[in-house]
Design brief:
Radius of gyration: 15 Å
Shape: elongated
Length: about 120
Amino acid sequence: VQLQASGGGMVQPGGSLRLSCAASGSIFKIDAMGWYRQAPGKQRELVARIGSGSSTNYADSVKGRFTISRDRAKNTVYLQMNSLKPEDSADYYCNAYVTYYSTTYIATDDYWGQGTQVTVSS
């Protein structure tokens, strides 16, 4: 199973970006998917998460500005980021709790995509 993130970049304060993360491989089902971020010198933190029933939770710092959504048919999670602030600058990582299969078994594991950099600066 692989997670491929995209959509990062540089934007001015107040601008918007949309991150995408597509899961691929021998996927049986995907439960929760989410986005985390890590700024230089800081710990990785949860930004937003969406459950299997589409329930969502957000970090207080992004509530009202960011929206997480998912396309189950495409095994993809999105993060729409509006009203971006310099303090949103970080490497953003997608995460998914995946049940996968092989020829002989089914198992569940936590997967991470590669980081995509978001820089908010004037």
